[in-house]
Amino acid sequence: MGKVNYRERIARRAEKEINDGDYVNLGIGMPTLVANYISEDKTVVLQSENGLLGIGPYPTEDEVDPDLINAGKETVTSIPGSAYFTSAESFAMIRGGHVDVAILGAMEVSEKGDLANWMIPGKMIKGMGGAMDLVHGAKKIIVIMDHVARDGSAKIKKECELPLTGKQVVHKIITERAAIDITPDGLELREVFEGFTIQDVIDSTEAPLIVKNVIENVK
Questions:
Q1: What is the C-alpha to C-alpha distance for residues 134 and 2, in angstroms, rounded to an integer?
Q2: What CATH number does domain 3-218 carry, 3.30.1330.10, 3.40.1080.10, 3.40.50.11780, 3.20.20.105?
Q3: Which of 29, 160, 165, 201 has the most CB atoms lying inside 10 A of its own CB?
Q4: What's the pTM?
């Protein structure tokens, strides 16, 4: 399975964490793909930090409006009944606890749910952005990411080595290999996706995993 299909798999699985009626913020990068897979059986309102409530799927070539973008500066569509507002109002929603789910990318996640997703020391950065507010304002934090880094090193670690966005804020990790819950007892392996084994996931995860009642070969 190619990387593009892996990203689709991750986005489709992340969509299952969203309930009917939820207000959801999708982080920059892979999380924005989740907008394409929202079930027709759910009424979900997607929020963007730059001032849009009611994001639709990515536009077709004929639908592209250069003035309608998400927080990652990608062109988007809007759903009927969508609303536009200032960034100040947007962050008031986030900080006020009105976002039910935030789906974010990550560079590293620790076994305690610490999140590092905003900078690598020595690299040019634009700032932390809205992630710092989202991890403390949203009710549920889902991280979606590649299971390992480009060099094959683990991204799910005992302790994060990169600067933190938030401590003990992540509830669930979804990668191309597995779905993992962060519990008071540690990381609990819930699902292993088709093409990988439980041992594959254990071998590519630095932090110890609780392995019991795991669903395997999930498509």
A1: 31
A2: 3.40.1080.10
A3: 165
A4: 0.93
Q: What is 17-79 written as a DSSP string?
A: TPPTT-EEEE-SSGGGGGGGG--TT---EEEETTTEEEE-SPPPTTT--TT-B-TTS-B--EE
Catalytic position from the list 49, 108, 111, 176: 49
Count of residues making up the chain: 219
User: What are the contacts of 42-47 at 24+ separation with CB within 8 A?
Assistant: 42/18, 44/18, 44/20, 45/79, 47/23, 47/90, 47/93, 47/94, 47/99
Looking at residue 134, its amino acid is L
Q: Has 49 been annotated as catalytic?
A: yes
Side chain identity, residue 81: G
pLDDT (0 to 100) of residue 98 = 96
Tell me the HSE value of 1 on the side-chain side, using a 13 A CA sphere.
14
CA dist 34 and 182 (Å) reads 21
Block mean pLDDT (10 aa), the chain, length 219: 81 97 93 92 94 91 92 90 94 96 96 91 67 95 96 97 95 98 97 96 98 94
Predicted local distance difference test score (pLDDT) of residue 163: 92
Both tokens of residue 177?
A: 């290999």
Q: Determine contact, residues 207/187, Cβ cutoff 8 Å.
A: yes
* Segments in the chain forming alpha helices (H): 3-15, 87-95, 131-137, 198-203
